[in-house]
Specification:
By secondary structure, this protein is of the alpha+beta class. The protein is built from 18 helices and seven strands. It is elongated and about 100 Å long.
Length: 435
């Protein structure tokens, strides 16, 4: 009897709490969706989906079935997923009032408790403001770009006065951020019951605001799964609806390094466009690689590497890697030996033609009367000599890396660089301001 009374005393509070929780849930109009398996929920489906080619398979399937707001159960908790730009903006703007940051435990453990992503409350506000103050437009323009330029000039050609990416860079950067932004969305936890879009999200529930799901929605971007920088040209001057383009999040947790990220991508695009030549592979063969980098006497290392790639593709690499085949004597000849010799002669002629065609006129005249084996022997000696010379130059460069540049820093004209950043990095990309 005593055990029975004790059991009732211990279980009554638990049953009361459970009854209260179930009653509150019945009174809430939750978004449609399913919770999946007990305990596991739909976590396995979420993880497995991202091994496919589709960038948002888990979300796509459920949006098609339930709409842009649905419930599920992932990482051990009931969670609401939102692919609605208005709801996402509402979540971001009400950080610290109706919502608080709440990442999965695995993410928090990976980042560490001192990460800005994990911080909350007044500490996060102070650290966010401090971080943002070190990467504003003025700091980037007057300090960081100059440092980046100094490092780039050490390894590559100078920026000179070529400042011509500008609007084109904005288009490519915007489209890259839309299609492949690093953070696909953010987790938040409700601090009270939230009514949104006709649904009630209970206090303490997780909610995931999917940025990439909105970016890849055809309702907001025509043919959204295609990479098309020119879409930003057609939208120039027309601000996007709020919440539609949020590659850096928004609200009090707007990524404090978003301007620095733009600057880094812009530098990459500058050199990608100005230092590389692009060829449409569907209309060319690998031999165009040699056409674009003919042997001229001072580029042997790159030319020889490209030559081997082309000969490998043409199945002629053995001709230069193996010893020259000697024709059998007349009395020792047989059908198979003659056939092998004829095949070698044909391949040697083809390889020699490729080599000569990939040279500038001066070395062509030097090698045109040599046999293939003579050409290869001479080229290999050149290759060994240039490799040794390159190693010496690299060692000298490393030893001299601490020497100040010949041109004093105060005499370098950084104004073109600052003008470039004012156009590429200033303001908000594509008329779409961060939330």
């Amino acid at each position: 009897m005593l055990y029975y009374i004790l059991f009732i005393i211990l279980t009554t509070p638990f049953l009361f709490i459970l009854h209260h929780h179930l009653r509150r849930r019945r009174n809430h109009r939750l978004p449609p969706g399913t919770y999946g398996l007990p305990l596991l929920g739909e976590t396995l489906q979420l993880i497995a989906a991202y091994k496919t080619d589709n960038p948002e398979p888990f979300i796509d399937e459920r949006v098609g079935r339930y709409g842009p707001i649905f419930k599920t159960h992932v990482f051990g908790e009931p969670t609401i997923f939102s692919v609605d730009p208005d709801v996402n903006r509402f979540i971001l703007q009400n950080e610290g009032r109706l919502f608080e940051s709440s990442n999965p435990a695995s993410v928090s453990n990976l980042l560490g408790r001192h990460s800005l992503v994990v911080m909350k409350g007044s500490l996060h506000k102070r650290m966010h403001f401090l971080t943002l103050s070190f990467s504003n437009d003025a700091i980037i323009r007057d300090h960081l770009l100059v440092d980046i330029d100094r490092l780039v000039r050490f390894f590559m050609d100078s920026w000179s006065d070529r400042v011509f990416l500008m609007d084109e860079a904005k288009k490519v950067i915007n489209e890259s951020l839309r299609v492949a932004n690093t953070v696909g969305g953010v987790f938040r936890r409700t601090t009270s019951d939230i009514n949104v879009k006709g649904y009630t999200i209970p206090k303490g529930w997780k909610i995931f605001a999917s940025f990439r799901g909105v970016h890849m929605d055809d309702q907001h971007f025509k043919d959204a799964r295609s990479f098309n920088p020119w879409r930003w040209q057609s939208e120039a001057g027309k601000p996007l609806p709020l919440g539609v383009f949020t590659p850096f999040g928004g609200g009090p947790r707007l990524c404090p390094g978003y301007k620095l990220a733009r600057a880094s991508v812009s530098v990459f695009l500058h050199y990608l466009v100005t230092k590389f030549r692009f060829l449409i592979m569907a209309k060319i063969t690998l031999r165009n690689i040699l056409d674009a980098n003919k042997l001229s006497g001072n580029n042997f290392d790159d030319w020889y590497r490209n030559l081997r790639i082309v000969l490998m593709h043409e199945k002629l690499i053995d001709v230069i890697d193996k010893s020259a085949m000697v024709a059998p004597l007349e009395g020792e000849s047989n059908a198979s030996a003659l056939d092998a010799c004829a095949e070698y002669s044909e391949e040697s002629t083809a390889a020699k033609c490729i080599i000569l065609a990939s040279m500038s006129p001066e070395p062509q005249r030097q090698y045109e009367n040599m046999t293939l084996s003579q050409i290869i022997a001479h080229l290999k000696k050149m290759y060994e000599f240039q490799s040794q010379t390159s190693n010496v130059e690299e060692n000298q460069l490393i030893n001299e890396s601490t020497v100040e540049p010949e041109q004093p820093e105060n005499q370098i004209d950084h104004e073109p660089l600052r003008r470039w950043w004012a156009v590429v990095g200033g303001g908000h990309m594509g008329g779409a301001r961060p939330e």
